[in-house]
UniProtKB/TrEMBL annotation:
The keyword DNA-binding applies. It comes from Azospirillum brasilense. The keyword DNA-binding applies. This is IS6 family transposase. Residues 76-205 form the DDE domain. NCBIfam families: transpos_IS6.
Length: 237
C-alpha cells in the first residue's frame, strides 16, 4: 500500500487507492453495493457495503465535479428527453440533456412533465454550459417549445420522435443501474446518484467504435491519468 498524501483521505482506515477504486467500480459499472463489497473482499479488502455507500457519498460528488470542470466544451447541439421513473410507487420524470456525441450535459429529476419542468431544465443547462445551443432536438412534447419561447431562445428547434435517438440511448445506463439498485429510494436519491454517475460515465465514454485500437488505448490511458489526478492518487508516493 502507498502513503496517503491527499487531505481528503486523512483519518480513513484504507488508503486512497482502495477508496478511489471502490468509488470507480460503483459509479462506472452497473454493480450493486454488495457486488463491490464482494469484489474488494476477493482482493483481501474487507469492508461492508455500507462503507462503500458512504465512500460514494463522501468522495463521488467531489470527483464528479472535478471531472466536469476538466471536461472539454461539449457540442452546441442539445438533445433533450424525459423518461418515467417509478420511485416509492410514484411517478417521477428524469429529464436529460446530451450533446450530439451522446455525452450527458445534465440530468434533473422532477415530479412534473410540463413547461415549467422543461424550463427548469433549460435554465440549469444554460447556467452550467454558459451559452445558448445552436440547435435543440426534442420529441413532440409541447412543453419544450413553450419553455423555449418563454426563455426567448433563438436556437433552432427540431421536433421529431426519430431525431432524438442519442438522448434515448443515454437512458440505458440509468435503467441498468436502476435494476441493480432495486429502484431509487427517493427523487433526491436518484438526483444525487445520477448527478455523480453522469460525469464519471462521460469521462470513460471513449467511443471505441470510432477510433483505432492504438488510439483507444492512448485515450484510455489519458482518462486514467486524469482519474488518478482528481482522486488524489497522483499525489501518493
Amino acid at each position: 500500500m502507498t502513503t496517503r498524501a491527499d487531505h481528503r483521505y486523512t483519518g480513513y482506515r484504507y488508503p486512497a487507492e482502495v477508496i478511489a477504486t471502490a468509488v470507480w467500480l460503483y459509479f462506472r459499472f452497473p454493480l450493486s453495493l454488495r457486488m463491490v463489497e464482494e469484489m474488494l473482499a476477493a482482493r483481501g479488502i474487507l469492508v461492508s457495503y455500507e462503507t462503500v455507500r458512504q465512500w460514494g457519498l463522501k468522495f463521488g460528488r467531489d470527483i464528479a465535479d472535478q471531472l466536469r470542470r476538466r471536461a472539454p466544451q461539449r457540442g452546441d447541439k442539445w438533445h433533450l428527453d424525459e423518461v418515467v421513473l417509478t420511485i416509492a410507487g410514484k411517478k417521477q420524470y428524469l429529464w436529460r440533456a446530451v450533446d450530439r456525441d451522446g455525452f450527458v450535459l445534465d440530468v434533473l429529476v422532477q415530479s412534473r412533465r410540463d413547461a415549467k419542468a422543461a424550463k427548469r431544465l433549460l435554465c440549469k443547462l444554460l447556467k452550467k454550459q454558459g451559452r445558448t445551443p445552436r440547435v435543440l432536438v426534442t420529441d413532440k412534447l409541447k412543453s419544450y417549445a413553450a419553455a423555449k419561447k418563454d426563455l426567448k431562445l433563438g436556437s433552432e428547434h427540431r421536433q421529431s420522435r426519430y431525431l432524438n435517438n442519442a438522448c434515448e440511448v443515454s437512458h440505458q445506463p440509468t435503467r441498468r443501474r436502476e435494476r441493480h439498485m432495486k429502484r431509487f429510494k427517493s427523487a433526491r436519491h436518484a438526483q444525487r446518484f445520477l448527478s455523480t454517475h453522469s460525469p464519471i460515465h462521460n469521462h470513460f465514454q471513449l467511443r471505441r467504435h470510432l477510433i483505432s485500437a492504438t488510439e483507444y488505448r492512448d485515450t484510455r490511458a489519458r482518462a486514467f491519468t486524469i482519474w488518478r489526478e482528481v482522486t488524489g492518487l497522483a499525489l501518493t508516493a
